[in-house]
Every structure is written in C-alpha cells, then in structure tokens.
Design goal:
184 residues, mainly alpha, 71% helix
Length: 184
C-alpha cells in the first residue's frame, strides 16, 4: 500500500507541476500581449499577437489555479505540512493527543463527506453554464461543471484520508507526529 501511495503521490506532483508550468506560460503570454497591445505596428506585422485572440488567458489561468489548489491539497500536501495551532496539543499527554487526532480527523472526514451530496446537487446547474472565453481554446463542449469537478475529487479524497487517520489513531497504530493516511 505504501508503494502505491508513493507512486500516486508522485503522479499527482507531476500533474500539479505540469499545471503550474502551463499557468506560468499562459501568464507570460498575458504579459507579452498586455505590453504589445498598444503598439499597432506589432499586431499588423505579427497578426498572431492581436490582443483580441487572447481573452481566454485569464480564464485559463483561473481554471489551472483551481485544479492546482484542489489536486495539490488532496494528493500532494502532507498532513504535517499544514499549518497547525498546536498550543493545546503539545501541552497534553500522548494519550490525549491521540484522542485529539481521532476527534479532529473524524470531524474533518464527516464534514467533508456530508458536503459531497449538496455539492453534487449544485452541479446540475453547472452542466448548463459555459465558460466565457475557453470555447475558443477547447471547443464548445467545456462547461463549468468540467472545471469544478475537481472539487468533488478533493472532497472524496480528503474525507477518505482523514477517516483513515482517525481509524489508525483509534486502532493505536499512529504516531502523534505523523498520522498520515494513504497518499499522504
């Protein structure tokens, strides 16, 4: 299980890295277009730099940012890499810390799992909404649902991870400093 988990995490890291690279390239394109837009001679001599062709870049960067955040939070960021407020946690005995892990992880797992169904209910309207500018880049098939489906993946994955952490802590198979679940 650990080997599969490590492989999946590496794949997720590579995927997020590619998305970050795409976002950087798109950002550079935005800068080039922004600073050449007022120079008419550039768009006349280099028609592919016409600023009217690059309205999609802002929405594409936002799409990439959404996917980077949710895929990264679900698959790349480890539990110990999160910012924690551990003033009380450090002040209590290890047996109490274990219960903090159990209760805290269970709350996160249950809260996120409970939000899956209402979130899916809102996806009905998103299947009808189109993006403002990405049709020129991807075609007319892309809908807002396709952009935000990564949030459902995030909810499921993080729910499972924290349920696993709670289960391991409940079975007393967890070190209080490293209570990572699968894929962590």
């Amino acid at each position: 299980m650990t080997r599969i988990s490590a492989t999946l995490q590496r794949v997720a890291e590579l995927f997020v890295g590619v998305l970050m690279g795409l976002m950087f390239v798109t950002f550079i394109v935005q800068i080039i277009i922004r600073y050449t837009a007022r120079l008419e001679w550039i768009s006349q001599s280099l028609p592919f730099l016409d600023p009217t062709h690059y309205g999609w870049t802002l929405e594409f960067c936002l799409l990439l940012w959404i996917w980077i955040i949710f895929v990264g939070a679900a698959f790349v960021v480890k539990r110990e890499d999160h910012v924690t407020f551990d003033l009380f946690y450090d002040a209590v005995r290890p047996s109490v810390r274990r219960w903090f892990i159990i209760i805290g992880s269970a709350i996160v797992a249950v809260a996120l799992a409970m939000s899956i169904e209402p979130t899916l209910g809102k996806f009905g309207i998103l299947r009808l909404k189109r993006t403002a500018t990405l049709a020129g880049l991807f075609g007319d098939w892309i809908r807002m649902r396709d952009i935000y489906v990564v949030y459902i993946l995030f909810l499921i994955t993080v729910s499972v991870r924290y349920a696993w952490v709670a289960w391991c802590a409940l079975r007393d198979r967890v070190d209080d400093t490293s209570a990572d679940g699968p894929g962590s």
